[in-house]
Amino acid sequence: MFNQLGLVGCGLMGGSFALALRRAGLVQRVVGYSKSPRTTERARQLGIIDTEAASALAAASGSDLVLVAVPVASTEATLKAIRHALAPHTLVMDVGSTKRDVVDAARRALQGQFGMLVPAHPIAGKEVSGIEHADADLYRGRQVILTPTEKTLSDQLQRATALWTALGCKVLHMSPEQHDAAFAAVSHLPHLLAFAAVNALCQQPEGQHYLGLAGSGFRDFSRIAASEPTMWRDILLANREEVLLQSSAFRRQLEALEQRIAAGDAEALEALIAQASQARAQWTMASHSNPT
Amino acid sequence: MFNQLGLVGCGLMGGSFALALRRAGLVQRVVGYSKSPRTTERARQLGIIDTEAASALAAASGSDLVLVAVPVASTEATLKAIRHALAPHTLVMDVGSTKRDVVDAARRALQGQFGMLVPAHPIAGKEVSGIEHADADLYRGRQVILTPTEKTLSDQLQRATALWTALGCKVLHMSPEQHDAAFAAVSHLPHLLAFAAVNALCQQPEGQHYLGLAGSGFRDFSRIAASEPTMWRDILLANREEVLLQSSAFRRQLEALEQRIAAGDAEALEALIAQASQARAQWTMASHSNPT
């Protein structure tokens, strides 16, 4: 049980965390701050936070739990802004989709206090953003990756693990490097491909007409293309080496398929499709008690 | 109202059509045939057909409505097999995902009777196949593209339009060429990309581990990769020119994104993502009363 959550960034991820924490009875009070005073006010009106803070520092002051839920590119400035408010036992976490850059930023910003931070990536989200879409169920049944470093205090890691577990999540520990390599493959590349596919469609003279004909396959395939541009700009840039590696691997597989199609090689084409089809049919999402 | 539906091919598409037709009270009797006697038997056991036919010809005999719901590559042989059973006013339709090849095959197979066929593509499906998944609601609220040629009899086209409309579909008429160009963009390319993405993931040494970390973005993006290999082999080959054109257009957009990422050009990258994000956020699936 925490006395006070200092929520820095009242968006979909932060707001959903506050709601989940409240519902689980794990926090007494939530003090929130967002860059836009309007957003902070809205978070209070929606009952997601109790008190509006005038600054990130004010939100962190007196909080024994601080969640930094800002665009990853703002992590360093945010941590610098709050570091003087952090009491020795404050548990600090982020929710960024990339982890090497967050860890590097935190090392610079927090210096001697770097061990207080437990870098976290809950594998949850929506293609819509903003406090209006905050949802107490967003994290339930989902995986949360914690990426401790050699400096991370082990009791902080334990508390973070217990906290996410209490919210109904399955907690995994990985290094920041392992995390970024894995999520380049299963998340960042799919987003990149969905952006490229929608752009390719819209660039065509008949693009709008074609879009009107698209069905449920396109709907699901392209859902993530509607994601928030600044967030995804930051993710793709922060993890650029891994993303470009994955994109190259993808291109090779696309070329293999294209070559079979161009050659009319039915047997080889079917073998490649069957490989994908079987792999995807066998896959089920981990800790999947609450599909959304 | 039809006296008898001759269903040639008792799979997901054909079985769902029979169920929808029955429920709408538009047919008195369904005679079915599938290449595998087991499938035909199962269709009868499930109440989807009334009578098992021993051949495609037998299913078409005495039917005033014939639905050919076989893999597109089998269309020509199937139409050849049934042509002598077609009475002058029999309405013949297919449900293939490509239309130029179906029209060419039908022209060869049906010759003087070619005008009886109304080529149809209902924009509906699932990533699972087979009679067990047949669903009376599969087509409801969906678009159906009819692709008549200069030979198609206009009363057949009218009857086909009325029939699909009565099943709750929105019917559009296009040329086979327009159809194939459009569906290369909105359906065939997304499938190709999903196959390539899943193969790229699985080829990696850590692929299985990565798959275990994937969340709902990957789930939806890759759903269509589980589609039936032989069906998609045939679609990609039948529509190869258009598919390869779309794949080239996609590659150019992917390269544009990769270049911005490699150059660290945040502004240009965000602009490209924003374009995709806005286009996808504004899109809604046409005639969408029954999302599945």
Your description of this structure?
The first copy, chain A, has helices spanning 12-23, 37-45, 56-60, 75-82, 100-110, 154-166, 176-203, 207-211, 216-222, 229-238, 240-263, 266-282; strands spanning 2-8, 27-33, 51-52, 65-68, 91-94, 117-118, 120-122, 143-146, 170-173. With 292 residues, the first copy, chain A, is an alpha/beta fold. The first copy, chain A, is elongated and about 70 Å long. In chain A, the strands form 2 sheets. Chain A has a 6-stranded parallel sheet with strand order 3-2-1-4-5-6, sandwiched between helices.
Describe what is shown at a glance.
By secondary structure, chain A is α/β, with parallel strands linked by helices.
Question: Which descriptors would you attach to this protein?
Answer:
homodimer, 292 residues, alpha/beta, Rossmann fold, 6-phosphogluconate dehydrogenase C-terminal fold, 2 domains, 6-stranded parallel sheet, 3-stranded mixed sheet, 13% strand, elongated, disordered C terminus
List the helices and strands and how they pair.
2 copies of one chain form a homodimer.
Chain A: E1 2-8, H1 12-23, E2 27-33, H2 37-45, E3 51-52, H3 56-60, E4 65-68, H4 75-82, E5 91-94, H5 100-110, E6 117-118, E7 120-122, E8 143-146, H6 154-166, E9 170-173, H7 176-203, H8 207-211, H9 216-222, H10 229-238, H11 240-263, H12 266-282
Parallel strand pairs in A: 1-2, 1-4, 2-3, 4-5, 5-6, 8-9
Antiparallel strand pairs in A: 7-8
Helix pairs in contact in A: 4-5, 7-11, 11-12
